[in-house]
Task: structure prediction
Amino acid sequence: MKKILSVLSLALVALAFVSCNSNSPEAVVQEYVADLQAGKYEEAIDLFYFKKQLTDSDKQQYVSMMKDKWGKEIEKKGGITGVEITDVSVAEDGNTANVKYIMKYGDGSSKDQEAKLLKVDDKWKMESGK
Result:
């Protein structure tokens, strides 16, 4: 039953992702959550903007840190069952945005999150702070 709910949740996230403009701040956040849900940490890292180009070694370190930090928390909470975007604010210049969202877990809990995004080469990326 848990597996069926996970598959259905992933399908809903994918449907929400397809229904949004794939180059919007909220679509990037939805893709990020879907990647975390599926354990696709390398793809999740690709959604971030880093001031300095990542080497393969750097990327693997970030993937490892993400697995250790998020993977364990996600597993402990019964997986991610969905995401709800609660607010999107794009700056007047159209180059930065804040997305507030609620990450929902299999154990019934949820967590309020906020992502800062930057428009880089006409694509939205989550700000890494690095």
Q: What stands out?
A: The helical segments are 2-19, 25-38, 41-45, 56-76. The longest helix spans residues 56-76. The CA atoms of residues 85 and 97 lie 13 Å apart. The mean pLDDT is 86.
